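Re: the 302-residue chain
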Amino acid sequence: MWSDTADDPTRATRRAAEFLAHRQVPWALIGQVVARTTATGRAVREILNDACSSQQVIVRRGWYYNGEVPSTRTREVYPPAGAPPAADMPIATPCPAMTVGRAALLAVLASYARNAMAQRLELIRPGASLLEIQKLMYLLQEAGLSLRLNYTKGRYGPYAENLNKVLQAMEGHYLRGYGDRSSAVLALEPIELLPDAEGQARSLLDGHPRVLAAVDRVLSLTAGWEGAYGMELLATVLFAARTDSLVATDPTRAADYVHTWNARKQATFPQAHVTKAWQRLHDREWFRTTASEAGTLGVGRL
């Protein structure tokens, strides 16, 4: 079935039409998605809809086996040296609607980025790394907003994989700098708001005072702690308290928890710093109640 024959001397070559990808392939390079059956095509279409993608899905029952070749388009591809800067990557996704959850993300990120600019003179323009945004949204969810982000114990602290889908959908429409996730986490590349994104978010949130209160509570906690180090430390200690109730009453237990998280955290965060983060969370009453005990505010899908 795979070998060349006298009647079909190029069969093996056609059926081995594959390629190698370095780390990731930018979604904008994909011209079409082809399924062999209608049912599979429908399932793929649902997945793409969830990802806010308008990518075309076609069904070709005999395409793979009978040598039919679709019309082709020339695309620019990037060498293994790496993808271009996120700001130069093409955007082929439709603009997602401004929801309350997305508005909360934009509002907290905009204010956090301005605070960071005031605190850290080395910053050239306002923005926040993906690591910082992961922690900001964890804190925002813990402040009482039901954002449906599934946070787990990650290498760099609380981590929600499904937040990446949200940021990818907003890239090029409300945010710039997320790119294709090919940058290393600790490169700390800034993600910035596009012009008027904060204005749209604030206009929507004017009618949602509890959401604004949650945003303000996060900003109060993080003031002076802006940066990847401070954000990871605060979020990690709070996650520890949510996982082990005794952490909320004992800073030494908090340090033990952090230092057994992984070798990186043990080497990165000395006990004195963990204790300082614990004290800040304690003084601002983040340990007093969990988000579920305080009553969460459902804001819908991000």
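The chain has a mean pLDDT of 84.
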